[in-house]
Structures are given as C-alpha cells and as structure tokens.
Structures
1.
Amino acid sequence: MMAWTKKDILDIESLRANEIELILETAVGMYEISERPVKKVPALRGKTIVLFFVEPSTRTRISFDIAAKRLSADCVSISASSSSIVKGETLMDTAKNLEAMNPDIIVVRHSSAGAPHFLARNLKACVINAGDGMHAHPTQALLDMLTVKRKFGRIRDVNISIIGDISHSRVARSDIAGFTKMGAVVTVCGPPTMIPVGIETLGALVAPNMDEAVSNADVVMMLRIQKERQKDMLFPSEREYAALYGLTAKRLRLLRPDAVIMHPGPMNRGVEIAPEVADGPQTVILDQVTNGVAVRMALFYLLSGGRHNADMD
Ligand code: CP
C-alpha cells in the first residue's frame, strides 16, 4: 500500500487519483469496526482532535466525532456560539490558542471560503476542511464517491447527474472535481440562475432540462437550494422550482430501475425531493451518512500515519 504524505485535506483538487483510491480503500476497511459489538480500536490512542465548527452541521460534525471516538482519539468540539469568537476574537487567534494545546488534527467548518487553507498554512496540526463557504466540501465528495463505488463496483464511466443550486453548492463543486477525476461522467442541471457560467471548464456537461438529466443517469444527486448563500431570490417560487427541478414521484418513473438517488442533506422535502422519493427503494441517502463515518475514520487514520493492521484489532 502507498504511504500517505499530505498534511491536510483541504479540497479535492489537490488530491491525486491514487490518493483518493487509497482513502476509499482505507474507508472500506473501517466498516467492520463500526459493526463490532465494541466499536473501538486503539489506532489513534493518545491523539487529540478538535472539531471547530463555525457553521451549523448535523451529519458532518457528528460523523467526525464518531469517527474519532471509534479510533480511540480524544475529541473535543467547539462551535462559534460557545467560543470567544462571539467576543470578537479573530479566527487566527482562536486557531493559535487551539494549537497551543497541541492537538494533532483540527477539523474546521467555516462560512468563509479559504478559512481552512489559511489555518493549514499557519498551524502545525493537520487541518481537514469540513466545508468552507461556497468553495469546497472534500469529505462529502469522498463519501459520495465511496457510496457510488460500493453501489456500482466502480466510479469510472458512471453517469452522475447533479440537480439544483449548483452555483452556491460546495458539495457540487467538490463532487464535480472528484467524480471527473475518477473517470465518471458528470452532468448538471438547474435553473439558469443557479448554474455557474463556465461550468463546462470543470468537466461537467449541462443538461437542458430535468427530464433529460435524470433519464440517462446511474446516479441522481439532488441538492438543496442554499438560501443562506443567496442575496436575491433566484426563482419565482418554491412551487415552481419543485415542478421544474424537483424529483417528484412522476419524474421518478423516468429513472432507470437500477439508478440510485443521492442527497448530501439536509433535505427540503417537497421542494427538491418529494417525501415518497426520499424514502423510496432507490435512495441511498442514509448509506451516504454511514459511508461518511468510514471515510472520516480513514482520513484520521491516514493523517495520523496509520499503516499497521495491528492498530485495528
Ligand atoms: N452534508 C452535510 O454537510 O450535512 P451537515 O451540514 O448536516 O453537516
């Protein structure tokens, strides 16, 4: 197995295809731990991990926390509202104070694009980007790639259609980068006001309408409208959006029977996805969440220099 050499996980663009393969292979080895009666191995005993979330999160924060605990790391969590950021302390001062306590890994989610890169340049600790503004969400892309690989046995030549608010989505940006790097065919579709100009330069095709986008897809990935990142309303109403770009029960009939439906969460049921579709047999949305724990365990393990199977007993 190749040795891991990177200090930080900041975006998908800076990972090589063989590094993504190594992360996914390592993640596969982590499933079994999560299914044991005692879900804990000593691999990261003595390591300290800080989860520093300046933006809300359910899935990402909890799965990083669970991943750290399953590997026996000591894990502490701080949020913006419970830290001295509310008293005016800068990001750099907060981070330097965290580093003074000598953590091994800092996981950061921040509303400003580039915040994790800034910390990585200035801290000795490894930094993992858990989502920065509209820029990147690399661990989401890795768990999405793992979900596709487990479902289809490969990523190469799988047709992935990503539907919705592409412009404001860090998940879309990281998924396009990751899936195209691993040889998948990525198509995007959404209101023209939510498709970035020049998206083709990232390697994505643009479908003219939703029906065309879903009918040839192996994977239909639905995205939430990122209202918190939009200055103006970019479509007339949620009702119109649901009719044109929602995955409804009627539109579900256009999908191939073996196609799967993904969503990074949180879902807005009745807007981008109908409740009966979200809960139907073709969705792998909760598999994505399970895979998120495995991917985050793999990243902690690799960044900590783990290579010995004995640590996993
Ligand atoms: N997918 C995702 O990032 O979800 P959370 O915002 O709940 O972490």
2.
Amino acid sequence: MNKLGIHALVWEAGWSEDECARAIAATAETGYDFIEAPALDPSLIDPVFTSRQLEKAGIGINFSLGLDFDSDISSGDPDKRRRGRRKLEDAVAVCRDCGGEYIGGILYSAFGKYDRPPTADGIAQSAETLNAVADIAARSGITLVLEVVNRYETNICNTAAQGVEMMKRVGAPNVKVHLDVYHMNIEESDIAAAIVETGEHIGYFHTGDSHRGYIGSGTIDLAGVFRALVRAKYKGPITFESFSSRVVGQPLEGILGIWRNLWEDGHDLAAHALMYTKAQLKAAEEAERQASQRSRLP
Ligand code: MN
C-alpha cells in the first residue's frame, strides 16, 4: 500500500514550535500517514520537538528541499559545492533524528531559473557529491529521491528520463527518482508513458494539479496518472502538494510564483485530496485487475 502524505505548506509557512505542532496535528486529524516538511534550511528544524509531535500524532515524516544558487552542487565554484554538500548532510541528520525515510526535491542543483544549460562537468560534480551524501544517508536507512521539475526550477532534470539518467550517474542503491505530476504536465510528451517507463526507479511521487490548487480541479488527466502508477507497480509514498498565497511565504512564493489565492481552507483542501487520491487509487487498481482478467466467453 502506498503511504499517503501531504506537504506542510498546505498548513503552515514555517516550522516554529507552534507551526510544527499545528501542521503535524492537522495532518494526522485529516487521516494522512505522513507529513512532508520543507527543509530548505535544515537548521530551522528542531528534531527533538518535531519527533515528539510526530509520536503524539502517530504519523511519519519525510523531507524535501531545493538547494539555492549559493549552495549549488552543480556549480563550478568549490565553495558553493561545499555549502551545498553541508546543507544536504544537515538535511540527512535532521531526517534521521526525526525518523524520516526520504529526502526529496531538487537535491542536485539550485532550485530556481537558470539562464544557461548545465555543463557535463557540473552534472558530474553534482553526481559525485550526491554519491557521497547518499553513503551517509544509507547508514540511517534514508533514500534520496531526485525530483524532476520544470525548466524554470532547474536546468538538469526536467524529464523523467533525465531523472533516471542522473540517478544512474549518482550510482547509489538508495538514490531514486522523484516524479511530480505538476512538472510532468509541463515537460513530458506523455505523462502516463513516462511513469510506466520510469517504473521501478520511482522512489517518491508528488500529486497535485495543473495550477497547484484543488486536486481534480485543473487540466491533468489524473485518472491516467493513477492508472500508470498502478501499472508501474509503484508502492512508495505519494504526497499531495498544493500552494496558495494564503499560506506560502518567501522564499518559496518567489521561486514558485505563488501569486494567486487558490484556496482559503487548507483543511477542506487536504480532506478532499485524501478522499480523491484513495478513490483514484482504488479505481486504478480495479482497472488493472480487470485488464489482467478480461472476461471470456463461456
Ligand atoms: Mn513537487
């Protein structure tokens, strides 16, 4: 069974004690298995307090982050790469101390709009750094998942196929591909085919819709997405991600371009997304079962 999670930014913009406690409690009350907390700056997360809230609520946690241009491990500047490596190692430590299993997001480059394509050297540097960080993560049973995002948020992994290629260049057993339908809707020629082709390399999945508001209220063929996930035999975590100017603050609102208020009530949004996701998964499993047991004439 896929564990279902929700991004913390549906609830709160930061991770102060009050924000952390409220976000974790709301995630559990809605019925999700885990919360995905942003770790853009891992030093802002208190693992002792966070773990206590998770235990109280009875849910799990995973983390996601994107590096910034000052800590870009695909940069030609060794100081930037060093800062990036430290940030990734700090995220691994926070994840370990909170009992998390996955760190996703744009771990391989800066999270933002580049003004030029990547270089082979930059990609090699990124893969080398990630291999070293993956080694540390493996000691705590943590998997690093490389999120494939649209062209305005990185210049390296924009398609699922590039994500698989990058994963192979990193070459560590605990590094997998993190797909997100919002980005796939921008970059892939065929979302369902890309999911099926990525298959066993998918380690983490983000759902959402084309405008990142209520799931099902945009233009993405989500029935096709869930059928593809079932066909790919994907059993890993699925996180619902949605952003509204109601909650998101800087730097994310600036990088992601969250200018519109797509919803007011995070509780209603989250409850709807959980119901929708469970219904889609159930329908997709049933479709797959029927496809494999086609009715025959007597
Ligand atoms: Mn995402």
